[in-house]
Amino acid sequence: MFLCPDGPLPEESVTALLAPRYGNAGADYRPDDGLDIGHVFSGSPGRLIMARTHYLGMGGDWRTDPPYTDGKYRGLFTFNSRNRLNNIPRGLTETVMFGESWGGFLDWGGTDGIPSGWSTGSRCAGFNYSTFGTCPNPANPNCDNQSFGLSFGTFGAMHLLHTSQGPRLGFNVAMADGSVRTLRGDIDFGVWDAMCGFADFEIEPSGLAPEVCGVLSD
Q1: Is position 201 within any domain?
Q2: How far apart are CA 107 and CA 111, in angstroms?
Q3: In a designed cystine with 210, which of 58, 124, 133, 193 is the match (CB 3.0 to 4.6 A)?
Q4: pTM
Q5: How many CB atoms lie within 10 A of CB 146?
Q6: Who's near 2: CB < 8 A, 6+ residues apart?
Q7: pLDDT above 90 (res 175)
Q8: Looking at the domain assignment, is residue 126 inside a domain?
């Protein structure tokens, strides 16, 4: 129930996400867990038994610099969050709660006992950030638009690989009202970020661009 029937099986992936650590220590992640900054994956032997998932809770945008001041684009699932559905000012029908992401191919080269191969999310991590944009999207420099999520830089993006949906591949999201929608992979980043921030009151903010740190942790 945590994997898309069309997606890669657990035995087809080499590791799973432990934690995404971005933003400010103590506010966006535990400062004392001894982990590196970035997307942190499970090494051996834990990588073999980590529970996989293709459906990740929405962490929104962790950035606080202009035009992201006060973290207003942060999502429902963040570090130590205790958000209630009746406290979503922008409306349940317009706020993303979960998004679909099948992972991506990462060139581990044996680091921490992880062979190069398909890497995916885990139920232990539980969320991802809208900051990485969507895929395939020519406007997203972190998305390999040709391989549809199969390359190193695309892991953090929300996407799937349903080729039946044509060149503008879509991906599924669950909104806070419980409805499920299919969004286009080339959705405007400003609209996407606004849909993922639950307290921004905005539908299409201006000045947002998908520039993010491009380094994924090992």
Answers
A1: no
A2: 9
A3: 133
A4: 0.86
A5: 8
A6: 51, 52, 53, 54, 55, 123
A7: yes
A8: yes
Overall domain count for the chain: 1
Q: How far is CA 99 from CA 111, 136, 194, 209, in A?
A: 28, 15, 14, 20
Q: Extract the runs of DSSP E, i.e. beta strands, from 31-82.
A: 38-41, 52-53, 55-58
Read off the pLDDT band of 151 (50, 70, 90): low
Structure tokens at 38: 């970035």
Domain interval for residue 94: 10-196
> What's the confidence (pLDDT) of residue 26?
87
Tokens, residue 116: 């190069």
CA angle 190, 80, 31 (to 5 degrees): 95
On whether residue 168 sits in a domain, the answer given is yes
DSSP string, 184-216: ETT--HHHHHHHH-TTS--SS-SS-------PP
Using CB atoms within 10 Å of the CB of residue 57, give its burial: 0 to 12 exposed, 13 to 18 middle, 19+ buried: buried
- Rounded to 5 degrees, φ, ψ at 29 are -160, 160
What is the per-residue pLDDT across 4-27, written as a single tens digit (0 to 9) for each?
888 888 898 999 998 889 888 988
Helices (H), the chain: 189-196
SS3 48: helix
Amino acid at 89: P
DSSP 49: T
Name the one residue in this structure whose structure tokens are 């286009």: 184
Burial classification of residue 200, based on how many CB atoms lie within 10 Å of its CB (0-12 exposed, 13-18 middle, 19 or more buried): buried
Which sign, positive or negative, has the C-alpha torsion 130, 136, 140, 141? positive
Q: Is 65 among the domain residues?
A: yes
